[in-house]
Amino acid sequence: MIFGQFVDTYPPSVDGVGRVTLSYCQTLVKMGHEAYYIAPESPNAHEMYGVPVILSASLKVPGELFRMGLPALDPAFRRRVSEVPFDLVHAHSPFLAGMEALNVARKRDIPLVSTFHSKYYDDALAKTHSKILAEAVVQRLVRFYDKCDGVWTVNNATADVLHSYGYHGNILIMENGTNMESLSPKGKAKLEQKLRLKKNVPTLLFVGQHNYKKNLHGILGACALLKKRGQPFQLVTAGDGPDYEDIVQEAERLGLKQDVTFLGFVGDREELMALYACGDLLVFPSVYDNAPMVLREAAVMRTPGLVVKGSCSAEGVKDEYNGFICENETAEAIADTIVRALPKVKTVGDHAHDTIPISWDSIMEKVVAEYERLISTHVTSIFAD
């Protein structure tokens, strides 16, 4: 079958949603299907991901890593999309990518699936500082999801968020997977060229977009408290983002320059997995994220994660069994949980490896089965009409 996966980011300027979309495409292709990664063009973009790609013209969004796609103004893009006989299209964003997927679905009379990935109300509120405008954005998104043949979320907590926005339709839980990998000597060697860790000092990791909505402020504050208490540690971060420079400067202001290593964006998969493997604890106290890939990837390498109680990220995490849960997102709570976690990371990391990751192969078998059901149902309804 032939599927179009529509999203608003393209590697190397890609977020977690883009990484999920890429994994969808790569796994579907491996299964013998055609799966097109359809997104705005990105500087230095190149097709080395083993999947067919269709990119539209785009504009840089000030203050952001991603670019705004302009599919309606790109005749070559529209022509390329029109040449592909999709059986189903899947939107991983309800914005321009989603509207383009909806346009294709309506013109072809084929099913449209959309996955709700992010807390869009929070994003809109942070950008506009207006609850009225943020609510207007949410209402528009709900109208989009009402037009979809299938609406998916990555866990139950995220489904609750979408329902809180006012969506009353059915929601299918379709979890994110991860690649079940082993440590690569090549990746380890490449990492060692740029990272020199102190021996016998616990290594804390943060992997992800360097955006304050991820609670980097809480992580750095916790590290300052650990240093004040005399708790040995070293923090390594990987990723870039709109607040990267401010975060580096904050670390210096807190007196953490010798304790924190900022690697920047790590694009090499084997190197990234080597980074997870050398960590003792992944510190991810974000209340914004829904089902972060980094927790699954770290668990593959037997590194447990720290998450916040009641957050969407905490779903499936059992405190001191396959991860660590702190009471809230404050620096003090994070620091206390790190101290509590460090003596137990080995055993908990083993349990995380055994219980948290799900292979993309397994997830995509469920995805394809649901795609097939939607296509069959859609065809039946056409004949019934």
What key phrases describe this protein's structure?
Rossmann fold; 385 residues; 7-stranded parallel beta sheet; 6-stranded parallel beta sheet; 14 helices; alpha/beta; 2 domains
Can you offer a commentary on this structure?
There is one protein chain. This protein is α/β, with parallel strands linked by helices and about 375 residues long. The protein folds into two domains: about 1-175 and about 360-385, Rossmann fold; about 185-355, Glycogen Phosphorylase B (Rossmann fold, 3-Layer(aba) Sandwich). About 45% of the residues lie in helices and about 15% in strands. The protein is built from 14 helices and 15 strands. It has helices spanning about 15-30, 75-80, 95-110, 120-130, 130-145, 155-165, 185-195, 215-230, 245-255, 270-280, 295-300, 330-340, 345-355, 360-385, and strands at about 1-5, 35-40, 55, 60, 65-70, 90, 110-115, 150-155, 170-175, 205, 235-240, 260, 280-285, 305-310, 325. Helix 9 (about 245-255) links the parallel strand 11 (about 235-240) and strand 12 (about 260). Helix 4 packs antiparallel against helix 5 (about 130-145) and helix 8 crosses helix 12. The chain is globular. The model has no long low-confidence stretch (mean pLDDT about 90).
